[in-house]
Amino acid sequence: MYTRNMASPQKTKKDSTKASEQPISFVHSLFGRLFLSSLILTFVPVGVSLYVMPPAVLKPTPLLVLFFFILLFALSLSFILSQSIARPIAVLIDALRRLKAGDYTIKAPTMRKDEIGRLENFFYATVGAFLETQQRDTALSEIKSQFVTVAAHQLRTPLSGMKWTLRLLLDGDIGSDLTEKQREFLQHGYQTTERMIRLVNDFLDISRVEEGRFGFHFKKVRIVDVIKKVVADIRLSAEAQGVSIAFQNTDVPEDLEIIADEERIYTATTNIVDNAIRYNMKDGEATVVIALKDDMLEVRVADTGIGIPAGEQPKIFSRFYRASNAVRRQTEGSGLGLYIVRNIIRRHGGRVWFLSAGGKGTVFYFTLPVKEDFIRNQNLPSEFLEAA
Amino acid sequence: MEQAEKNGPLSVARMVENQSMHFVIVEDDAYLRSLLTQRLSREGFLVVEAENGKAGLKAIRECAPHIVLLDIILPDMDGYEVLEEMQKDKTLSGIPVIVLSNLGQKEEVDRAKALGAKWFLIKAKYTPDEIVAYVKKVLSEAYI
User: pTM for this one?
Assistant: First the structure.
């Protein structure tokens, strides 16, 4: 759906929007056409009758009166007919225009019993159904957001207690007479808690990612700052794991603004960079490079880690899938990280892919459209998008 | 705070380096509160505990702390309301607040920051050591 809207049809769509705003010329208007038709329809039989009449009968004054009446007749007929058709169409166009601008307070259907009345009824029924779906989606999105709030609080609070207790014990804050064996056990306990926390975070992310288009908040975002923030926020834990992390901006203006959901892009980038750290080697490196490629911003995350085995590469974006060498490392992971990444990037109209050879590191790429046009389509109701 | 201002930047630095900085922790979970208090006290910080929003606000008014650690979901008066009340009171609006909560959706973070919170830390994502590091960073920024 989104790819279709990203491609050339945009231009056509823009042209057609422009055309609908321009005034209609007299010749192309319904009134003009009906007027010309009625003139022809009246003049032809009158002309033929005049032609066959003897010239003696034809006098200038009655002829002028006749022409005048024909003209008046054609004018009135075409005006009445065109108004009866054009007026309801104008009302529908106006309603559509207001819908497009986000004004959903449309009038009730007219009581006409003809085909136009039917069209109006159908139009208003469709709009009504669409509004109902939209309201339902918005309500659902709010419920989900509330669920995430409650779940985050209820699940993370006891986990925080466990994490802090184990950490304080391990750091010697409660006493420093632990045996090696006890320390080892506590370390396992700590790792397990971390795994559980990560799992909860991923589930909370996913419940928002899967809630659909209405859950995304697209607005102008200074994208370079977002990527830099990911790198800055992860630096501490990267260094703790002995991995150095570098950021490089090839040619992206620092103040570049793209239309995106900042929180989701932060999550997606964090998930990729986090993998580059966790599945890296001791003293390994992770590099985040951003560059402009035509109308796309490309983010490249390279690591010197364990890589993704060739046979498993097609499955890596599937839900709950973890590569066998990643599982062997016994690092915590839910198998949801890259699934979330792909969902987020796709909804932004971008693409995510990777190059990897087992044991030789992985390079992840994702792109985000820089042009604003993409978002205009995102704001249209999905029913209209699907029809496009 | 007055003492810190009087003694100049060097003694403020020393105060931040563990001494006589006053804290108010507003946290309804007694166990989490005790763990944090224990860890911060070990650093030499003076900690006043409050278990709900109202008690927290009262403690903040009474002891004018150097920094506040504030939870969001609290009984009777939530963290946002505490922040709002602090904003309204000129004597309290300058006190740096670190929100320490297990919420973390963007709307929640934005709301807290709009109400004057300096940092928004998700409890489950940070260890007590990391929280102490943030606290010191905020204190240095605010008082040195």
Answer: 0.58
Domain A219-388 classification at class level: alpha beta
Chosen from B35, B39, B110, B137 to mutate, greatest number of chain A CBs within 10 A: B35
Query: Which residue of A145, A147, A150, A157 to mutate against B (max B Cβ within 10 Å)?
Result: A157
At residue A353, the pLDDT reads 93
Per-residue pLDDT of B110-143, as tens digits, reads 899 999 998 899 999 899 998 998 888 888 888 8
CB A174 within 8 A of CB B134: no
Angle at A344 between CA A341 and CA A349, to 5 degrees: 120
Q: How does pLDDT run across A47-88, given as a tens digit for each residue?
A: 787 787 777 766 777 777 877 888 888 888 888 888 888 888
Across residues B16-42, what is the average pLDDT?
85
Closest CA to A191 of A64, A278, A297, A269: A278
Q: C-alpha distances in angstroms, A335 versus A276, A326, A327, A331, B65?
A: 15, 10, 10, 11, 44
Q: List Cβ<8 Å contacts ≥24 apart for A63-72.
A: A70/A39, A70/A42, A70/A43, A70/A46, A71/A39
Domains along chain B?
Answer: 22-143 (3.40.50.2300)
Q: Return the sign of the alpha-carbon dihedral for residues A159, A161, A164, A167.
A: negative
- Residue of higher predicted confidence among A243 and B4: A243
3-state secondary structure at position A148? helix
Question: Closest residue of B to A207, CA-based?
Answer: B105
Q: Residue A331's pLDDT is what? A: 61
CB-count burial class (<10 Å; 0-12, 13-18, 19+) for A225 = middle
Out of B31, B104, B124, the one facing A163 most closely (by C-beta) is B124
Question: Which tokens hold the place of A366?
Answer: 């994702």
Give B20's DSSP letter: S
The torsion region of residue B8 among left (phi > 0), alpha (psi -120 to 50) and beta comes to: left
A373/A13 Cα distance (integer angstroms)? 11
The H or E element spanning position A102 is none
Distance of alpha carbon A162 from alpha carbon A189, whole angstroms: 9
ipTM, 2 dp: 0.83
Six-digit token string for A30: 């319904």
Q: Is A233 on the interface with B (CB under 8 A)?
A: no
Is A331 in contact with A278 (CB distance < 8 Å)? Answer: yes
The candidate with the shortest Cα–Cα distance to B122, out of B80, B130, A295, is B130
d(CA A294, CA B130): 41
Q: What ranges make up the beta strands (E) of A118-229?
A: 219-222
